[in-house]
Amino acid sequence: MGSLSPEKAGVGSAVNDTTRELGGTLGVALVGSLFASAYSNRLDSALSAYPVPAAAKAAALDSVGAAVEVARQAGEQVGPQTGQAVKAAIDSAFMSGFHAGSWFAAGLVLVGAVVAARFLPDRAPASSSATDEPVFDLTPA
Asked: Buried-most residue among 14, 38, 105, 133 (CB within 10 A)?
């Protein structure tokens, strides 16, 4: 906003708000997709070592809450050690997705900061100030 003249401050504010909302929406979509992909890939390979039915495995891959329920049922039906092992696999898969999403977001922030520092001016050009010349000539004729 500091690079805009006072006449363009309203437009600059609107563009700023729009880009912030668009960036937030796209950021949630991208980071969420990356998280979900890393989580499900890691959990899929981890659950292959345990006697988890296909329907329960599919539910666990779609939702962390469902995965915790699968671990609870595995503990009741197969044994507490299996339930704890499945829960540990879920926790590990969740953190794997969380780390992937966090590193991706950090990389985007770094790229954005470099682009902003390189290409965005920090002040309005001196010739675009509203006080340089009057808009109307108010001298009597």
From this structure: 38
